Amino acid sequence: MKYIITFVITLQYLFVNAGTMQVITPNDFTGSDIERIQAAINAAKTTTHKVVIPQRNSNGSNSWKIDRAIVLPGNMTVILDNCVIQLSDSCRDNMFRSDNVGIGITDPVWIYNISIVGVGNVLLRGADNPRSTGDAYRTLALSPAKGRVSYGSDAGKEGRKQKGDWRNNLIQIAYVDVFTLKNIEIEHSHAWAISFERCRNAELSDIRFNNPETIIVNGVEKKVFNKDGINLRHGCKYFRINNITGINGDDLIALSSLDAAPYYHTNGDINSYQVTSTKWNGPEDDTEQIFITNCQTNYTGVAIRASDSAGIHNVYINGVITKARPDTPAPYGGSPYTLLVGVGGYGKSSVPGKINNIYAMNLVGDGKTLVLIESPIADCVFMNGIYTGQDSSAVKYTIDRASTKAIQEINVIKTGKD
Length: 418
Fold this sequence. Notes:
Structural class: mainly beta
Strand content: 35-45%
Number of domains: 1
Shape: globular
CATH topology: Pectate Lyase C-like
CATH architecture: 3 Solenoid
Number of strands: 28
Largest sheet: 14 strands, parallel
CATH class: Mainly Beta
Number of helices: 2
Low-confidence stretches: 1-20
């Protein structure tokens, strides 16, 4: 009997201590918020492979304010437990980035299995007064001006970079196979909220955006551009995207495969809008096998853009609603589309048929058109659409329709009721 009791007590001890060891939080470490968060991740990298960022910060606050990116290795799960994480006003970096890419990393390698999972109410916020916003072609400006500009407190400061870049994306992930992002709210990202490059086997769900193209800085309204929600760029494959909602200043979801040679950036180029090369290297850089369901936004819904020989194909969309909000006026006088397929202005025009096998159903929109087709696409089906906007047709072609091939429009209607 004595041995049985001792055995049970030993098991209980091991169980309790194992449970304790399995919870690594930034509150276990010293330093600034970013130093403690990164220390927790570094410790978990060789032990539990899991970090919990709790609501309560040991510094006495109920939020975490970071000065540089949280870099994530492979085989890592970050649990965001009812917490608020915000970029500080001194930060000019992403909030989360996979650790295989960054400034000067010219030969990124694949990493595997990263998860960011929200529990309860999780808020990821941009800075109150961001140093830089917009993409790599935006010049920083303190006030609205002509041309491609976007707000940034670094505007006009000597020695400070005067254009945006990929560091303005709140979450920047590249060359990751198996990625999960669930149950978070994103507010006031500095450019694209979430950007993926050359990633595979990802699941994104229950993501909410409060991301208009205006922010208030010290009581003054400032313009912040390129406020896409989710971007899938070169070589993204096998993505499942579900239940994405909210307010955006640009596309809710954008799929882009752009062959813009010879005008491309290399891996790790700080002057680029991508952290990896913008060169299209062949079919491995096509975007394909993307599944999008149950999405709603105040502005543009899903945009599919390819240029020259780059391809996007096998995209399956079921349920996208774009509806203007009276409390948040849409940019440029209203949403130009619920679904965009093809585009000009990004290098050479898309080679006929390189955008193909796009299947979209259950679309609703009140913008300038429901489905906008701007490239010679092939083998696509658009089914069950309701358009309540002012244009005369739910599907609009800006190219010669004869240049497309095997396009079916089934039960896509225009109605005056909204």
